[in-house]
Amino acid sequence: MLQADPLRERIVSLFDGMSPQLRQAARYIIEHPQEVALVSMRELARNAGVQPSTMTRLAKFLGLAGYDDIRAHHAEAIRFRVDGFAARAMQTEESEEDMAAAQLSRRMLQGLAAQIARLTEPASLERLAAAADRLAQARRIFVLGLRSCHSVAWHFHYVMTLLGEKTTHLDGPADTVGDGLIRAGAEDVLLAISINPYALHSLELAQLAREKGLGVIAITDSEVSPLVGLADIAILCSTESQSFFHTLAPALAISEVLCGLLANKDRNAALAALQRADRHLLSLNTYATAIPRRRI
Amino acid sequence: MLQADPLRERIVSLFDGMSPQLRQAARYIIEHPQEVALVSMRELARNAGVQPSTMTRLAKFLGLAGYDDIRAHHAEAIRFRVDGFAARAMQTEESEEDMAAAQLSRRMLQGLAAQIARLTEPASLERLAAAADRLAQARRIFVLGLRSCHSVAWHFHYVMTLLGEKTTHLDGPADTVGDGLIRAGAEDVLLAISINPYALHSLELAQLAREKGLGVIAITDSEVSPLVGLADIAILCSTESQSFFHTLAPALAISEVLCGLLANKDRNAALAALQRADRHLLSLNTYATAIPRRRI
DNA sequence: TAAAAAATGCAACATTTGTTTTATATGATA
DNA sequence: TATCATATAAAACAAATGTTGCATTTTTTA
Predict the structure, then answer these.
(1) Residues B38-65: what's their mean pLDDT?
(2) Which residues have CB under 7 A from strand C?
(3) What is the nearest CA distance from A55 to chain B, expressed in angstroms?
(4) What is the model's pTM?
(5) The predicted structure's pLDDT at residue B249
(6) Chain C positions with a protein C-beta closer than 7 Å
(7) pLDDT given at position B6
(8) B218 closest CA partner among B238, B193, B245, B188
(9) How far is CA A177 from CA A139, A144, A277, B175, B290, in A?
């Protein structure tokens, strides 16, 4: 929002002085302003993961009479926004270069959004479901993604480690990438991610996995990708982008969906695992609760 | 409202068959659609000059279960208008225990697409352009993303290495993550990526960078993220998803856009650099186009 | 460590909400 | 006009809302 929003600014500026629960409530309001006006306080509190009373306390903390002041403010913001949209588009006066930058950015982002939206085609959804089934059945999941695909492979692996110990990330220094497969067998599955140009090493390892009897699931970019012939299930994602580079956002989206599907197979187990991970990381002081903030 | 609105059309088409009081209520709703979602039924009735019961009767007359259906519809319309169908799937019930895989996948993907599309708001585009400018000016770019954000940081770094030697990826074993900053100074910039929950180490390093005089550019998830206070420019991306986990797809999209903008600053240099990288990797036999024959 | 203070969860509270019921008014038909 | 069906207003109702006080937990201070 470009318009001055005094309440929003007040919440941000007082954020540091809030207790954890107040912060959680405040954060949710900052990030879902329209919901404040559209749902009841109790429902908002539920969605924000706090007690109803916390919302009242937040209002008082902000110096307001009660929660209704917060709601009234956000309702007013919605009433004003009716014509604010056009106004906002106009008021952006930019330099020529920035204009060009904004245009390129917009084109790229819209392209990415469209590509991810296109993954909702029935054919893709079927393959996603089949892949999730296969991954759920596997004893062990080996995740392989080299070079540009490393980010996707690692992210999948990272999320899955929050759920349990089922995945092995095939990566390592000194040419030890494939060592994880030493004890892999027919009960295991390789999740291989590779896009054009295909890293030779990825294909070799996928081939090796196949020879060892592993199931192979591929995330790749084309029906004629070499991985398609090697894989039991291949999920295709476009990598075209409006810039010089290939995009991996759709591939990342696919891997996130796979994680979501796997977690959804047993929601309770997933929740329990996540809580366990939370506690572990908490005891390690991995995350910041108190914030080293110095400047506004 | 430009979109087709079935309820509105239904009210109009049944208008002639209504009693005077029903008409008065219906007319007010047609002419003040946003008020329906923003005030209580009794207040709406008062403003419309009818009895509260008339509103309920109108709902029944339209074939709905009750007034709440009318309100829910108008709230949805506001969500639609404000977010461009973004947070829609987001808010809907997630209580269905056994959601079909296809349904969950579709929801997740649509949500991701919408979140990326939302990054095209003018405010975001401005920040992207400013960030690209700052990164282009920098002597050196240090890229920091720990834990879940590693994928984004690494991807940015990887793409940038194709363009040149300007970036340093802050990562390493044995607690050497921050060592890259040893010789960093005021002419350099830190690109820090962190989302809630914020890795303590990321914040500490960002703080250190700031103290050493580096510019700080952040990719983070909220106006109240601790990185916002530390950063010269903060680019915000939503991380909410329909599943248990946060999504990094929008953050990845942002980093890809930054790469695109940087490459676009000097297209010829970028092309030349990419060709050089291509030749190098070709001579190393990094890539394949067909299924490889395994070396023994 | 113990004591004090702050933060939080819980449950009871008075209101307010949307709905339903009942009584009254309205207007058409014969 | 008398009769009837419909439309409206008023009041009663259960369900929900936002708030508050209190007990418990957590954090800070001495």
Answers:
(1) 93
(2) A 19-22, 50-54, 57; B 40-43, 52-53, 55-57, 59-60, 65-68, 71
(3) 17
(4) 0.88
(5) 97
(6) 6-11, 16-21
(7) 85
(8) B193
(9) 20, 9, 27, 22, 21
**Residue B192: beta bridge partners?**
B144, B218
> CB of residue B110 closer than 7 A to nucleic acid strand D?
no
Distance A62 CA to D24 C1' (A): 26
Distance from CA of B224 to the nearest CA of A (A): 6
Asked if strand D contacts B20 at the CB level, meaning under 7 A, the answer is yes
Determine the distance between B200 (CA) and D29 (C1') in angstroms. 26
Rounded to whole angstroms, the Cα distance separating A157 from B233 reads 31
Does position A92 have pLDDT exceeding 60, yes or no?
A: no
Using an 8 Å CB-CB cutoff, list chain B residues near A13: none
- Which three-class secondary structure state does DSSP give residue B65? coil
Answer whether A61 touches B (CB < 8 Å).
no
**Chain center to CA of A212:** 33
Res A204 pLDDT > 70: yes
- Asked if residue A152 lies in contact with residue B151, where contact means CB atoms within 8 angstroms, the answer is yes
Residue B45 to residues A9, A215, B27: CA-CA distances in angstroms? 34, 63, 12
- Where helices occur in chain B by DSSP H, the ranges are 6-14, 20-31, 33-38, 41-48, 52-61, 67-83, 87-91, 101-118, 122-137, 150-163, 200-211, 226-230, 249-265, 267-283
Contact (Cβ atoms closer than 8 angstroms) between residue A29 and residue A14: no
On average, the pLDDT of chain A sits at 87
Report d(CA A226, CA A208) in Å as an integer.
14
Report helix, strand or coil for A4.
Answer: coil
Across A7-16, A179-188, B35-44, B245-254, least confident range? A179-188
Tokens linked to B247: 């999504």
**Among A270, A262, A256, A227, which Cα is nearest to A152's?**
A256
pLDDT tens-digit profile of A257-290?
999 999 998 888 888 878 777 777 776 667 775 4
Report residue A128 as tokens: 């996603």
Residue whose structure tokens are 């979109």: B3
Give residue A231's Cα distance to chain centre: 26
Nucleotide nearest to B51 (CA to C1'): D9
Task: Please report, in angstroms and rounded to a whole number, the separation of the first and last CA atoms in chain B.
Answer: 67
- First vs last C-alpha separation in chain A: 18
> Which band of pLDDT confidence, cut at 50, 70 and 90, is reported for residue B277?
confident
Residues of A with Cβ-Cβ distance to B292 under 8 angstroms: 200, 203-204, 207
User: Is residue A251 very low, low, confident or very high in pLDDT (cuts 50, 70, 90)?
Assistant: very high
pLDDT at residue number B94: 42
